[in-house]
Amino acid sequence: MAAAAAAAAHVLVFPFPLQGHINCMLPFATALAAAGVLVTFLHSDHNLRRLGPASTPDGPHSQRLRFLSVPDGLPDNDPRSVGGLLELVESLQAVASVAFRALLASLLSTKSPSRADHHDAADSGSGFPPVSCVVADGYLPWAIDVADELAVPVLAFHTSSACSILAFLSAPRLFELGDLPFPAGGDLDEPVHGVPGMESFLRRRDLPSSFRRAGEHGVNPRLRVLVKDTSRSSGKARALIFNTADSLERSALAHIAPHMRDVFAVGPLHAMFPAAAIAKSLWREDDGCVAWLDGQADRSVVYVSLGSLAVMSHEQFTEFLSGLVAAGYPFLWVLRPDMVGASQDAVFQEVARATGDGDQARVVAWAPQRDVLRHRAVGCFLTHAGWNSILEAVLEGVPMVCWPFFADQQINSRFVGAVWRNGLDMKDVCERAVVEKTVREAMESDETRQSAEALAEQVKRDIADGGSSAMEFKRLVSFIRELSS
Ligand code: UDX
Question: ipTM, 2 decimals?
Answer without folding.
Answer: 0.98
